[in-house]
Amino acid sequence: MSLKDTIFSAPIDKMGDFTFDEKVAEVFPDMIQRSVPGYSNIISAIGMLAERYVKPNTLVYDLGCSLGAATLSMRRHIQSEGCQIIAVDNSHAMVERCKLHVNAYRSDTPVEVVEADIRDVDITNASMVVLNFTLQFLAPEDRLSLLKKIYAGLRPGGILILSEKYTFEDDTSNELLIDLHHTFKRANGYSELEVSQKRSAIENVMRPDSIPTHKERLQSIGFSSCEVWFQCFNFGSMFAVK
Predict the structure, then answer these.
(1) Among residues 169, 154, 157, which one has the least CA distance to residue 214?
(2) Fewest CB atoms within 10 A around its CB: which of 7, 121, 198, 205?
(3) In contact, 158 and 130? CB cutoff 8 Å
(4) Which residue ranges are tagged as binding site?
(5) How many Å apart are CA 8 and CA 4, to the nearest integer?
(6) Does pTM surpass 0.90?
(7) What are phi and psi of 6, to 5 degrees?
(8) What are its E.C. numbers (predicted)?
């Protein structure tokens, strides 16, 4: 059972950038449930999509796997034989805990948990790739090249799931959706201080794109279909089919 997230509950004199360290890994399930609207729905649906799209004798990638929620959801639903999930994260604390979660359940679908930068991972023979709130933490100039590599490594008919926080080009809409997200966090027990300090810590490391930016980039790479399949406030998830 994860601990309650109290990382930003006391005043912090010198606010550093948000990092996925041991402190965050320890409280991550609580943090993500109380911070990301619709997270459980997205994780559940990733499993449903795995049941539909994962083909026999292919690889499945969870890039930026954190504690392995998407990996475990896919593994529970994969029906095809001869598959393997490659779960990748660059946080040592997350990888070690992910391994414990993966090893706690037996399954016909093996999982390899890898500590690495997702930009350095080879994508081959993939029928499904998941970027679940991961791309937004990459430098904007690195996003297109990673997506191109994913597209090249996907088999025809393969699917990419891309969950992200969104920014909106209309200022009124953008501010309203940000405010609704902060209201969501307060309703889940975060104080004004926690909301404010978390926002300050994360704004330099998480730079979200707009939905049109995501769609234009995916279409320019060559994906035949892409659409937002889930959205709650300024968080959502898209699919892109090769």
Answers:
(1) 169
(2) 205
(3) no
(4) 39, 64-66, 89-90, 117-118, 132, 199
(5) 11
(6) yes
(7) -125, 20
(8) 2.1.3.-
Q: How far is CA 117 from the centre of its chain?
A: 14
- 47-92 per-position pLDDT tens digit: 999 999 999 999 999 999 999 999 999 999 999 999 999 999 999 9
Give the Cα separation of 57 and 159 in Å (integer).
Answer: 16
Rounded Cα distance, 97 and 178, in Å: 31
∠ CA(166), CA(7), CA(91), 5° rounding?
Answer: 65
The residue written with tokens 């499945």 in the block is 60
Say if residues 113 and 99 touch (Cβ distance below 8 Å): yes
Q: Where are the beta strands (DSSP E) in the chain?
A: 59-63, 84-89, 111-115, 126-132, 154-165, 225-232, 235-241
Strand (E) or helix (H) holding 207:
none
**d(C-alpha 211, C-alpha 219), whole Å:** 12
Burial (0-12, 13-18, 19+ Cβ within 10 Å), 91? buried
Strand ranges across the sheet with 126-132? 111-115, 84-89, 59-63, 126-132, 154-165, 235-241, 225-232
The amino acid that residue 155 corresponds to is R
Cα separation, 238 vs 225, in Å, equals 10
In degrees rounded to 5, what are phi and psi of residue 92? -60, -40
Structure-token pair, residue 149: 């590599």
- Token pair recorded at residue 75: 């593994």
The whole-angstrom separation of Cα 54 and Cα 62 is 13
